[in-house]
């Protein structure tokens, strides 16, 4: 790859000048989609079984991961629950490759427009589709031939059809690509985090140009609004050239933080955990726009944009062993959205469609429910920016704030239900006057603001895990 033309050059210095687009800061909420051949067996152990394992045994953790999208790897552990299920259901010699053909057959019934309508109804503002996961199966009929596996891609253009459908609903469209792991090029059984590096195909496997060509094709065909790489990339120079092409071709796009390379340089803080983080976070590469903690959040405002991602349950791809009780509740999603908005983040909530193309009803109902919540709470989430408060808790409940300067609004988020109906909140200095106070989804009995303190009485708090006071203010 060479001859990059445009404002951005394939260097860390040039690429680091890229700004996160305003649409992403406004959006706050996106839908992730993990879907592919693994949705046919749709099996991983239930989280309760996994919790009984020795958490210090890394090999056991990989052999029994709750991520159903890792089926092809977990079936390689002879004593794993996945291997047992595969033997009993399909037979000892049944190849994972057969799931690709079954997935393509099921695609005849797929209706991307119905998915897009649901995502719009949820209140999400963007959609990120897994276009190629670790099994190497491409969800578009690529012109880039896989030298190791024939016809290992969809017959329908899932990427293109979904891009068209979600954009027709006014949503942005992004693509995920597993740049660091592709089991069609190299698949040593992954049983530790160190194995990620030894399992990464590169120059010796003729993988680098293949991945480069895929990325060029995705950018040229679909002009994705978000380029979401996973795990790593096999060569730093090539990653810089891909990103330079992308930034120049899609001026209002962005990328994530999963571009670390085995041959690249690392900052001294690449593996540090930023303050206030829960969950896991990838090592920081030289170039990125948004940090992406997995099953984790930040609890304070930090000087960068971030996006938490998680499955509806304990898996990203659909896991037949998960029931409705395993899925995150509407209130928990609302809490994530409010908290992330208060602390400079977004939520990328994953759906795992079944192999028959249906989004599981329990997952769809969560999207519908959070969409109803956002009909009321949306002004405090969408198109806002975080606002630092002098206090972090009020009435034993964590609080945060967002503001919409253009609308003259400040929103105080109580990330829980206060135990009393009268609260006092210390206001930031930049608020010179409060002109009115209301409760989103509820009422206000009385309020006053003087000497930098807001005092509010409510008849009762709203029936959600997040209580929001809307302040009309003067700066």
Automatic annotation (TrEMBL):
Record keywords: Glycosidase, Hydrolase, Signal
Pfam family, one: Alpha_L_fucos
EC number: 3.2.1.51
Protease listed as a keyword: no
Entries under InterPro entries matching the protein: FUC_metazoa-typ, GH, Glyco_hydro_29, Glyco_hydro_29_N
SUPFAM superfamilies assigned to the protein according to its UniProt record, in alphabetical order: (Trans)glycosidases (SSF51445)
Enzyme class: hydrolase
Span of domain Glycoside hydrolase family 29 N-terminal: 5-378
Cited function: Alpha-L-fucosidase is responsible for hydrolyzing the alpha-1,6-linked fucose joined to the reducing-end N-acetylglucosamine of the carbohydrate moieties of glycoproteins.
PANTHER family: ALPHA-L-FUCOSIDASE, ALPHA-L-FUCOSIDASE-RELATED
Family assignment from sequence similarity: Belongs to the glycosyl hydrolase 29 family.
Name by which UniProt lists this protein: alpha-L-fucosidase
């Amino acid at each position: 790859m060479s001859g990059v033309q445009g404002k951005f050059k394939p260097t860390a210095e040039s690429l680091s000048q890229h700004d996160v687009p305003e649409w992403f800061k406004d959006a706050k909420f996106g839908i992730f989609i993990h879907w592919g051949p693994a949705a046919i067996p749709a099996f991983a152990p239930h989280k309760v079984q996994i919790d009984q394992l020795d958490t210090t045994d890394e090999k056991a953790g990989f052999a029994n991961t709750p991520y159903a999208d890792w089926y092809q790897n977990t079936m390689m552990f002879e004593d794993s629950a996945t291997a047992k299920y595969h033997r009993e259901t399909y037979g000892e010699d049944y190849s994972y490759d057969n799931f690709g053909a079954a997935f393509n057959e099921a695609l005849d019934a797929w209706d991307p427009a119905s998915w897009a309508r649901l995502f719009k109804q949820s209140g999400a503002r963007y959609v990120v589709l897994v276009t190629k996961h670790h099994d190497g199966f491409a969800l578009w009929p690529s012109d880039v031939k896989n030298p190791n596996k024939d016809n290992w891609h969809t017959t329908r253009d899932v990427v293109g059809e979904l891009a068209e459908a979600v954009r027709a609903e006014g949503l942005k469209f992004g693509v995920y690509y597993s740049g660091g792991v592709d089991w069609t090029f190299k698949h040593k059984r992954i049983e530790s985090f160190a194995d990620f590096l030894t399992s990464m195909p590169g120059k010796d496997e003729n993988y680098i140009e293949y991945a480069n060509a895929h990325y060029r094709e995705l950018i040229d065909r679909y002009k994705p609004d978000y380029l979401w790489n996973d795990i790593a990339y096999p060569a730093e120079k090539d990653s810089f050239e891909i990103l330079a092409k992308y930034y120049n071709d899609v001026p209002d796009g962005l990328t994530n933080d999963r571009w670390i390379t085995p041959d690249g340089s690392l900052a001294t803080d690449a593996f540090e955990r930023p303050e206030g983080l829960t969950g896991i976070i990838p090592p920081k590469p030289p170039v990125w726009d948004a940090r992406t903690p997995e099953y984790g959040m930040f609890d304070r405002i930090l000087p960068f944009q971030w996006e938490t991602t998680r499955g509806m349950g304990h898996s990203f791809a659909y896991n037949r062993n998960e029931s409705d009780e395993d899925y995150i509740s509407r209130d928990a999603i609302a809490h994530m959205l409010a908290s992330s908005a208060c602390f400079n983040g977004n939520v990328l909530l994953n759906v795992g469609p079944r192999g028959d193309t249906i989004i599981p009803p329990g997952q769809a109902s969560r999207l519908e429910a959070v969409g109803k919540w956002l009909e009321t709470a949306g002004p405090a989430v969408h198109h806002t920016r975080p606002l630092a408060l002098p206090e972090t808790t009020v009435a034993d409940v964590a609080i945060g704030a967002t503001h919409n300067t253009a609308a003259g609004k400040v929103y105080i988020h109580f990330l829980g239900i206060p135990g009393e109906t009268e609260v006092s909140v210390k206001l930031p200095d930049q608020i010179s006057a409060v002109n009115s106070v209301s409760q989103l989804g509820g009422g206000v009995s009385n309020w006053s603001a003087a000497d930098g303190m807001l005092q509010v009485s409510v008849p009762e708090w709203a029936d959600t895990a997040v209580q929001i006071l809307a302040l009309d203010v003067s700066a």
